[in-house]
Amino acid sequence: AQSVAQPEDQVNVAEGNPLTVKCTYSVSGNPYLFWYVQYPNRGLQFLLKYITGDNLVKGSYGFEAEFNKSQTSFHLKKPSALVSDSALYFCAVRDLYSSASKIIFGSGTRLSIRP
Amino acid sequence: EPEVTQTPSHQVTQMGQEVILRCVPISNHLYFYWYRQILGQKVEFLVSFYNNEISEKSEIFDDQFSVERPDGSNFTLKIRSTKLEDSAMYFCASRGDTQYFGPGTRLTVL
After folding, report:
1. Which of A66, B30, B41, B82 has its CA 20 to 30 Å from the CA of residue B59?
2. pLDDT in tens, A37-68
3. Which member of A36, A100, A106 has the closest CB to residue B55?
4. Residues B2, B4, B6, B9: what is their CA dihedral angle, to the nearest 10 degrees?
């Protein structure tokens, strides 16, 4: 079965510091990986995706993610955190066995940026 | 930028009542989805819809659930007889090259 794991329920970072939100995947075949963010009352917003090509993927709001095949990881990063980055972040993978390409989500990591 | 919209944002209903959750997908997308998120839990796939029929559904999507695209723009999820455990945030999504999600409908069953 395909899955993603987010080992941290919560990540706390001071504003201006770099942030990393961790994600590892378990997929048979080439993974299609995503990051979504959920702000309060705003639903799930697409941040970025990896399908193929460059291992460093750049997305919205200054976020980027690095695909690492040997470590089966897809960590989300940002060089300098903002208080407004505080939200719930979901790593996700496209189900390659799904005829409709449904998405399988991780459990989410709550990111808290303190001023 | 086009986006998926959902109405209502919050629905409160009594157990056993029928509810209809509405979504307007992005206009040139062909695949539509419903997911749900029970409070404190993962976002879970419910059903996908393509070419006016269900293309895939999860074990959660039992006979109490149905989906419809009644008029070429709206995409609805109906729960015929709500249970307490149906209380959740329901997300609609549509897909072009990427799945985009709506803001969700919070369903509370009393």
Report:
1. B30
2. 998 877 899 999 999 889 999 999 999 999 99
3. A100
4. -80
